[in-house]
Design brief:
By secondary structure, the protein is of the alpha+beta class. The protein folds into four domains: 192 residues, P-loop containing nucleotide triphosphate hydrolases (Rossmann fold, 3-Layer(aba) Sandwich); 93 residues, Elongation Factor Tu (Ef-tu), domain 3, CATH 2.40.30; 86 residues, Alpha-Beta Plaits (2-Layer Sandwich); 86 residues, bipa protein (OB fold (Dihydrolipoamide Acetyltransferase, E2P), Beta Barrel). Helices cover 22% and strands 33% of the residues. The protein has 15 helices and 35 strands. Strand 19 and strand 20 form a beta hairpin. Helix 9 crosses helix 14. The termini are far apart. The relative contact order is 0.09.
Amino acid sequence: MDLRNIAIIAHVDHGKTTLVDELLKQSGAFRANQAVAERAMDSNDLERERGITIFAKPTSVEWKTTRINIVDTPGHADFGGEVERILSMVDGVVLLVDAAEGPMPQTKFVTSKALALGLRPIVVLNKVDKPDAEPDRALDECFDLFASLDANDDQLDFPHMYASGRNGWADHELDGPRKDLSALFDLIVNHVPAPKQIAQKNDDFRMLATTLGSDPFVGRILTGRVESGTLKVGATVQALSRIGQKIEQFRVTKIRAFRGLEEADIEEATAGDIVSLSGMAKATVADTICALAVEEPLDAQPIDPPTITVTFGINDSPLAGREGKKVQSRVIRDRLYKEAESNVAIKINDTPGGEAFEVSGRGELQMGVLIENMRREGFELSISRPQVIMREIDGVRQEPIEEATIDVDDEYSGAVIEKLTGTRKGELAEMRPAGAGKTRIIALVPSRGLIGYHGEFLTDTRGTGVLNRVFHSWAPYKGSIPGRRAGVLISMENGVSVAYALWNLEERGKMMIGAQEQVYTGMIIGEHSRDNDLEVNPLKGKKLTNVRASGSDDAVRLTTPMSLSLEEAIAYINDDELVEVTPNTVRLRKRYLDPHERKRMSKQS
């Protein structure tokens, strides 16, 4: 069969996974009576709950006489490490753009990687049947985006299609027949080049490992594209590191290829196909799996450096060990290093004493997903506030700047601009009408200024604004940026919270806990209405007497406590506070720093 390898890239919620669903259905990958879940490619629990793609996953469809390997890539820049590795496996990309929103920051981020590799794009304008769709404007913006990313002439001469992924059709013309996706299949086959390695079947076997998995029965599994040669089950191969150092020699026990949503065992892998191998004990991502005669490793794409760091520590609160089973620092360390092995965008550093670990990554969402996975596995952790990674060049201290693209109702644009360009040290780059009474604001803001801003942003825009951010560049340090303005209410007692005490404390600020919840000294139970921290007693009950009076015996009615998600809690805390994460609970607590640690924190901020 002919082969085509493509990646589908798009901004979050532009319909990428839904389009892949339709491609699988219309290619005959499913039986007519087969029950298939919506967004079948989002197989991870977190992906289904959040409605986003987190992990890049290959699949395969057959169209006429051609097998098309499709890679569904994450649309969020925090998971850019997945995209950077996957693009080395494909020969073309399908760029999916919402016809109403146009290219967004994450689209720009992934597209720049694809164009730099010389991949030829196909632009699909999705959701053209929406009432607010403007496909012509979106197409012009795509061309402008490609030009700004230094695309070559072949890449600028891209074909485009109009589509509705949910309804399962794509046409070359906006007023086409709107029947199915056959035109898109044909365009992929005709426009995307066949793998150039096909002509090298007689060469020695080479494959660059791009993703790492594991199976309880076969052990480590490495997935990648065969660059040259062929490989049979039972053959002996070797693994070379990026610098050409021999890591191990092993016998291939299984070769699996993607066929629809399933993986099928095959006897032989040929150049150009995307396969998974098992049998290795040490080889990992970015290593070259090759024949014994090969001495030079394949070039691995460089991965962008991390921009934030978070400290993971043991949970040492009075309630530690009540919900989770994995609480020791040794177990946490092993889990983090296992994550860093498969996720090349994450870096781990041990801290002095070995009780905590500095985890560096791309953003708060990436850290949140890692912590959420660990708590579901039974871990208990304490998490610090994210710190931005600085660097020094020629004696000048530099910090990462992010490009924030914001769509808000016209009436709220003033409040948003004031916050971004005032206290958060941002610079307004562009502001224009976005139609339907909305304004699009593009601002360049220090990463430090965006940590913890999302909650404020939703409050300022009454929940109607949309904020997207992506790394833009490094710039000289812009000075101190104030953190959270409000103080917190801190419990001064250990025990179970009492409704009467919380009712009396509501005039002091917003509560974060309800009645009959376990609290301890130092635990944060609410947000103070002023800028200072306040120690309070949530256990104080009502003094009982034999005298009853209509005015003093009113029923206690508590306001619903404010609930913070894991990512919101991490962004909410200050440097002297921690998030306590257990399988069932997320709590905030004070962290009492020694003078040396306090000095280091103040220097960083």
